[in-house]
Amino acid sequence: MKTLHTRLAVMVAAAVAAAVIVMAGAALLTVAALQAHQVQATLSADARVIAAQPDQWQATPTYAKKAFGPRWQFLDPAGSVTASPTDLLPVTAEAREVAARTSPPRQQEVTIDGKVHQMLTVPLDAGGAVQVAINQERTRQTLTMLAGLLAVVCVVGVAGAAWLGRVVARAGLTPVDRLTASVEQVAVTMDLSRPIEVTGADEIARLGRSVNTMMAAIDTSRRAQRTLVEDAGHELRTPLTSIRTNVELLLQVERRPSEAHRLPPQERAALLADLDAQVRELTTLTTELVELAREDATREAPEPLDLADVISAAVSRVRTRASGVTFATDLTPAPVTGRPGELERMVVNVLDNAAKWSPSGGTVAVRLRADGPHWWELTVTDEGPGIATEDLPHVFDRFYRAPAARALPGSGLGLAIVAQTAHHHGGTASAAARSPHGTVVTIRLPNPQPA
């Protein structure tokens, strides 16, 4: 498996190598084109000079045989050689056509003594033609040497590109290596409280800050879970201890029937009633703990619903178990988007709390109305003794129970679930004292269809 270093080095090397090869090929083609143009220009210039004074060049053939440089000869209109100071040049069909003035000047590649030449045939004004040829061996040797040099340059360039790619990969991925090492260290130590050191403002720095944000969120969640477990253990210990004590007493009586008289029927019934109450309290506490710890991992999906219908269902449930309290409702249709089961449990918890503190014959007022164009406001008002000023900031904390409530059944989780559910639905929950006595719990939820 290739590492990111290797892949980045290979990509850089491939890019540089491709650029070097393309530039070398372009250079070779450019030189070849320039040489071809130079040969053509030389042939044309020599042909014009000779054609301008053909009599003088025919009368004084002063050029000696040379391996390189121009060669020339004259042709009559029939295509026969009339003068050639050097080795004879081949008279091709195209050359005869030029000499007969049936074709424009023609340039050809011909072989003379096994060597390649470029030959130009130009017509003369007086008839016939002149042929000029240049040896291409030196030009080809030059191109061959240049091609070999460029090949060496390409090899060196590719090797340098590979080395450069590795250097760039190491330099560019150094912040990633540091970030990886820091994350691996966190994974080993499980210490989420120390953020990773981040410098700069590039993508790697952004990734580091995102990792720090994630670590902070995980650390907060872990601390909350630890607190929940510790608080739950503390709250579960009390009913479990009471249940264990009562069960041990009953078992002791069952094992020693002779001592059954020490537990009269009235006390036995009271003991069983207390045991039943403790089991019910433990069941309620366990259910609320599961609900509180479930967070967003709910089985329900948000859906459009009428909050007034949810509140009506919750009032019907609580009314059956709080027959000594009157529930007065004033509900306005309130479309919201949420999880109906969670919202109903939220309202039930508020109503249960209000019914628990209301005196016999008291009234719990439930009101739902619009609070501006973007919010719905639910208020539940009871006629109980109210909440002390010092307790108001803590009533929505987990397991918090005011001193006046510790003698009554309850887990201290009901209002915590209310606050959590409201938060999950984008709303808020608050509590306030009611004059002259009583408590008002207010829940605000967003209106998805503002007027």
Strand order of the largest sheet: 2-1-5-4-3
Low-confidence stretches: 62-68, 403-411
Task: Please provide the ordered H/E string of secondary-structure elements.
Answer: HHEEHEEEHHHEHEEHEEHEE
- Kindly estimate the percentage of residues that lie in beta strands according to DSSP: 15-25%
Overall morphology: rod-shaped
Helix content: 40-55%
Helix tally equals 9
Taking the sheet with the most strands, its summary is: 5 strands, antiparallel
Strand tally is 12
Rg? 51 Å
Mean pLDDT: 78
Structural class: alpha+beta
Q: Roughly how many Å apart are the termini?
A: 59 Å
Task: Give a verbal description of the structure.
It is a single chain. The strands form three sheets. The chain has a five-stranded antiparallel beta sheet. About 4% of the residues have low confidence. The chain is α+β, with helices and mostly antiparallel strands. The two termini are 59 Å apart. β3 and β4 form a beta hairpin. The protein has nine helices and twelve strands.
Topology:
Blueprint: H1 4-52, H2 54-59, E1 70-75, E2 81-83, H3 93-99, E3 106-112, E4 115-123, E5 129-135, H4 137-189, H5 203-255, H6 265-293, E6 303-306, H7 307-321, E7 326-331, E8 335-338, H8 340-357, E9 363-370, E10 375-381, H9 414-424, E11 428-433, E12 439-446
Parallel strand pairs: 7-9
Antiparallel strand pairs: 1-2, 1-5, 3-4, 4-5, 6-8, 9-10, 10-12, 11-12
Helix pairs in contact: 1-4, 4-5, 5-6, 7-8, 8-9
